[in-house]
């Protein structure tokens, strides 16, 4: 009677093993590979196995992934162990890959090794037939798309049980930082994201001195996607805008003392219709460090002019019909916003009290187009100077800070000495001829 009962139990167990094996193998033959940012799934049967995997899924995140599956075991061997391999996305999902790289790959991720050791301990010695649902979270920070493979390893070798590819890695972009005091925007260095402005321009990692408001968006690089809770856009980074200095009122024609009304010297009536620019400056104290040598001469300007005079600047015909902002350095002074004429020029009015060696800089849309040097002298007749230069000025030895140029004054003084000596010689010769 006992033999009959034992035989019945053995037959039932065998039937259960056979049914479980057929069911798991049937499920495993429907292999698939996911390609979404969420859970991915791919299963493969293991021939002549004593363990069958189905429903193998990977739910990735920026710092880890959660592995879930169900398995059925039969006659689990004491020397068997579960192993997990993590590889680049293009690695084939087969046992050959694991045999070549599996040990090294698993050793690189201690958390995966520990999880597999714990799971192996759970399933060993559970009886003839054992079925279990598993969910394990593995700490892993990927650098791109990757594959996860599950193996059964025993004294006879390794057998591939299941695997899944994660085509997109979820990541959280770093937030750009902005120092309002210095108007400096710092773009993070990121492998996962590229930072672009509203025009689609890519901003490389590093600090930027803002001359206009900027709105940045983090765009995922290939193989990455923003985590659901991550922010990829931020409020506009805007520098503090300081108003332009109030222009000094011009004298009405004929109001100068001891002059007949309407007879101001060299007053050109057409000057009343010439624009001198205006509006609020779009930048917050642009720094003269922006005036790099590479941009010198990218705009043309006459080399000399008188304080308070109008100066023509060649911006370029490619900017015709567009508005540009003009500054004079070294202490940045806003000269207004101007519309570029069809010939690529704008005309600006220099401040009345500004003299010495300076630099004119032109911006379009907050970006520096170019700059050029100019020497501004005192003037009482409204002279605008001569010698328009549409190229690079190479007199880099001119002083660029302060209102006077020591080198220029020395040159003028030397010229005066030469002219004075020449006049003295001429007068002496004239006296001798008379005598």
Automatic annotation (TrEMBL):
UniProt xrefs under NCBIfam families: LPXTG_anchor (TIGR01167)
Full protein name: LPXTG cell wall anchor domain-containing protein
Segment forming the signal sequence: 1-27
Biased composition (Basic and acidic residues): 243-270
Record-annotated membrane-spanning stretches: 407-426
InterPro entries associated with the record: LPXTG_anchor
Span of domain Gram-positive cocci surface proteins LPxTG: 398-435
Gene source species: Leucobacter viscericola
């Amino acid at each position: 009677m006992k033999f009959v009962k034992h035989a019945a139990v053995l037959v039932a167990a065998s039937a259960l093993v056979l049914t479980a094996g057929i069911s798991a193998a049937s499920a495993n033959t429907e292999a698939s590979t996911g390609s979404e940012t969420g859970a991915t799934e791919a299963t493969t049967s293991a021939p002549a196995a004593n363990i069958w995997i189905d429903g193998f899924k990977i739910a990735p995140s920026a710092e880890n992934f959660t592995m879930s599956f169900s398995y059925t075991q039969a006659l689990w061997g004491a020397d068997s162990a579960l192993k997990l391999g993590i590889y680049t996305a293009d690695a084939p999902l087969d046992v050959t890959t694991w045999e070549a790289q599996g040990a090294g790959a698993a050793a690189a991720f201690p958390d995966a090794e520990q999880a597999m050791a714990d799971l192996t301990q759970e399933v060993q010695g559970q009886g003839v037939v054992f079925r279990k649902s598993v969910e394990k979270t593995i700490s892993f920070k990927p650098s791109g798309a990757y594959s996860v493979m599950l193996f059964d390893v025993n004294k006879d070798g390794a057998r591939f049980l299941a695997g899944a590819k994660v085509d997109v890695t979820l990541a959280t972009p770093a937030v750009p930082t902005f120092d309002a005091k210095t108007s400096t925007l710092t773009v993070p260095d990121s492998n996962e994201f590229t930072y672009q402005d509203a025009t689609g321009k890519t901003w490389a990692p590093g600090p930027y001195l803002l001359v206009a408001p900027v709105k940045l968006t983090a765009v995922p690089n290939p193989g990455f996607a923003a985590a659901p809770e991550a922010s990829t856009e931020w409020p506009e980074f805007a520098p503090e805008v300081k108003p332009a200095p109030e222009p000094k009122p011009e004298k009405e024609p004929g109001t100068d003392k001891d002059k007949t009304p309407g007879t101001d010297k060299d007053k050109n009536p057409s000057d009343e219709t010439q624009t001198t620019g205006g509006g609020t400056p779009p930048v917050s104290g642009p720094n003269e460090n922006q005036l790099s040598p590479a941009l010198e001469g990218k705009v043309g300007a006459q080399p000399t002019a008188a304080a308070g005079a109008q100066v023509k600047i060649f911006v370029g015909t490619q900017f015709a019909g567009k508005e540009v902002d003009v500054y004079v350095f070294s202490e940045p002074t806003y000269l207004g916003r101007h519309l570029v004429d069809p010939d690529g020029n704008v005309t600006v009015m220099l401040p009345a009290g500004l003299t010495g060696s300076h630099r004119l800089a032109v911006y379009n849309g907050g970006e520096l187009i170019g700059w050029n040097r100019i020497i501004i002298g005192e003037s009482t007749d409204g002279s605008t100077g001569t010698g328009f230069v549409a190229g690079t000025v190479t007199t880099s030895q001119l002083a660029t800070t302060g209102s006077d140029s020591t080198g220029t004054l020395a040159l003028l003084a030397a010229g005066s000495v030469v002219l004075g000596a020449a006049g003295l010689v001429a007068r002496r010769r004239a006296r001798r001829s008379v005598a």
